[in-house]
Amino acid sequence: MSPSETIGTPVLWGIAIVTVLGLLLLDFLLTRRPHQVSMREALLWSAFYLALPLAFGVYVWWDHGAEIGLEYYGGYLVEKSLSVDNLFVFMLILAGFAVPKELEQRVLLYGIAGALVLRGIFIALGAAALSRFDWVFLIFGLLLAATAAKLLVDAVRGHQETDVNSLRIVRLIRRFVPVTEEYDGPRMVDRSVGRRALTPFGLVVVVVLATDLLFAVDSVPAVYGITGDPFLVFVTNAFALLGLRALYFVLRGALDHLVHLNFGLAAILAFIGAKLVLHWAHLVWPSVPEIPTALSLAVIMGILLVTTTTSLIAVRRTRRATSRDDHPGLEHCNAWTRER
């Protein structure tokens, strides 16, 4: 489907936008009184935000056919995978700023709202560019290839702790705007010092919004590599983002076990980048083959399955090695048992 074609009628666009705004408003109401999120609460909301896009996919498949349905599910799977990596970055930022537990979900919510706005802008610009200039597919493909290379380098080096004071955006803000030392609930601006000053909460929100901009640069071209329909690009981004607040608290411990996540995401982005380059080449030279949507979905699911499996195996081996180091006599005992 080309960027000029869309299943999104004005009515469907209206329903989607109202639904997104309504869910955002609901989240703001739920986080109006800061509180620590329990696992039960996080699991219930995560289940809701998973069921919603799956159910919408059934509608798309039923009303618009299997090809469009596969595009939707492929786009959603890519966006959800990228959002999990985004959560890891959010985790490092929140830990680096020592955000109180009861304020974490409000920071995430501001980040989600900002990401929706930024990605909406990028989606509109991307659709306009792709409908007019075929070479934009090549640019998007090369951009994803560069991002994949960066992720691969980061994966080889391993995740590092984030020193928030060394971030450029933090140094820039502190240079021009005073920042208080203590959190004052969800207040972003403090006037008790005689002039306006950012609170640490306000500073961390600005940093999260800045990272949203970087995420949008990678995310929007990636989903355009799966579907050219701006409506599907918007709803897959929206569904992937809306569930991040609850998913963060569910996966906060599990993210440490996905040690090969960046390897998988690098492979996915490299594959989509190649798909976009082939699509551009097909537009210029029709004899060049394209990658079917069904094959794209199968490759993405396969990469995620392999990445998850190898991550769990690696973590298990590390734990066993650590256990043997902590109990040096255990290996001798096991060997004696095997001999007996």
Give the topology, please.
Elements: H1 10-30, H2 39-64, H3 66-96, H4 104-132, H5 135-157, H6 168-176, E1 189-190, E2 197-198, H7 200-224, H8 230-242, H9 244-251, H10 261-284, H11 293-326, H12 328-339
Compact overview of the structure:
The protein is an all-alpha fold. It has twelve helices and two strands. The model is unreliable at 330-340 (pLDDT under 50).
Features:
mainly alpha, globular, 340 residues, 75% helix, 12 helices, disordered C terminus, 2 strands, two-stranded antiparallel sheet
Shape: globular
Instruction: Give the C-alpha Rg.
Output: 22 Å
Number of strands: 2
Q: How confident is the prediction overall: mean pLDDT?
A: 81
Enumerate how many helices there are, as a single number: 12
- Poorly predicted runs are 330-340
Task: Write structural notes for this entry.
75% of the residues lie in helices and 1% in strands. With 340 residues, it is mostly helical. Strands 1-2 form a two-stranded antiparallel sheet. Helix 3 (66-96) runs antiparallel to helix 7 (200-224) and helix 4 (104-132) runs antiparallel to helix 8 (230-242). The protein is globular. Mean pLDDT is 81; it is low at 330-340.
